[in-house]
Amino acid sequence: MEQVEEMAARVAEAIKNSQKVRLISHNDADGITSVAIICSALLREGKIFHTTILGRLDQESIDGIKPDLSDDEIVVFCDMGSGQPEIIGSIDNDVVVIDHHIPVGDSPAKAAINPHYAGIDGATHMCAATTAYMVARALNPENIDLGGIAITGAVGDKQLFDGANGKILEEIIENGVISIRKGLKIGDGDIAEVLMNSPEPYLDITGDSEKIENFMEILGITGNLEKLDEERTKKLTSAIAMKLTKRASPEAIDAAIGDVYLLNKEIVENVYDLVDIANCCGKMDKPALALSVCMGDEKALPEALQITKEYKSRLVHVIRNAESTVQEKSSIRYIIGNDMEATGIIAGTLIRYAYPDRPFVTLNRVEEIVKVSGRGTRALVNQGLDLAVSLREASAAVGGNGGGHNIASGAAIPRGKEEEFLNIVDEITTKQLGGMNN
Questions:
Q1: How is domain 2-162 classified at the CATH fold level?
Q2: Which residues contact 344 (CB under 8 A, 6 or more apart)?
Q3: What is the pLDDT of residues 61-101, one digit of tens each?
Q4: What is the pLDDT of residue 161?
Q5: Cα 36–42–48 angle (5° rounding)?
Q6: d(CA 114, CA 126)
Q7: Residue 389: its pLDDT value, please?
Q8: Which of 51, 113, 159, 240 is an S-S bond match for 7, by CB 3.0 to 4.6 Å?
Q9: Which CATH number fits domain 325-432: 3.30.70.940, 3.10.310.40, 3.30.70.20, 3.30.390.50?
Q10: pTM summary value
Q11: Mean pLDDT across the stretch 128-143?
Q12: Which residues partner with 74 through β-bridges?
């Protein structure tokens, strides 16, 4: 963490010395929360800033931004930039990178902070938001109150809370930024409605009102999750744990039951509700709405909650339909679709809760390209899986590009190359796993 603090100080100094800041970030929960932290810190510093949130970082996006940059403006990338040195290198202005993805090549950034530079695994132990939090603290120690947003990003990125994340969590709990209650790691609200429309955890009753009604009747539990007493909370969590053990991965149980973080400084109390708002608004092309909520704008909250409710309900329907189209090769499972929503969420949900024994890849045909999302489990990573390598090499072989983390990665490839791409991913994955899934 000393090395991380040193990097944070250099990044903070570069930002302090700039008149204007152009922020560019990713549209998922980690990307939105990381840039929200920096926006809030800059607002307190009286800095002029302009934020752009992207679905992915490519040269076309940067070419569209470059003409708007003034000479005295620094460009700050959040949750992206480490794997695309050639793209950020095309910017004439000074560049700063606040990221947690595996660095590729030599960074042209004036200053950069990435947990990998300090020997910390950015896939599991430090996300973009917790990294951004370190920068905010370096700008001003009073920014410790932004720690709740940092933990939201880590939860959204399915990270562990030991190591670096654990130290940050411990610090902000001690300072009253977050408190904890035991229970289901899902948002608050009516139990039946939450189970109906929540893809996390994805159960055999999710999306089926009749099955949920029967489940609740057997348990004899109704009402709102946050108002359940200890006995009924234990009864509900035990019943859900039994369902998860039938087919989900071991880490899915840990992800569904345990410590629920309550955000004492934010307008949304339950961290899982805020994660949902960030993810859903990002996917619905409303990232600015989620950013506003993360920055404490209460006027933005009603619309954000409505979008989240509608999107989660639709997402459950999409996952249920996708589950019926799963195919497999020697070492991977996959889905190929057209204009699908939330392919990363589909892949992550299905590998955690239905098919944990092999990496899962979704291919989504959108206009002239195919967007790819790959997801693994920690158990598979421990066996040798590295989706960042397999998707990067396979996409490059068919004229595309890709990268990310060993456990979660993405790519974009030309249409018509789907089968060739999948075969290469399967071949690389088989080698990584030593043929264990054959």
A1: inorganic pyrophosphatase (n-terminal core) (3.90.1640)
A2: 28, 362, 373, 375, 408, 410
A3: 999 999 999 999 999 999 999 988 999 999 999 999 999 99
A4: 92
A5: 110
A6: 9
A7: 94
A8: 113
A9: 3.10.310.40
A10: 0.82
A11: 97
A12: 21
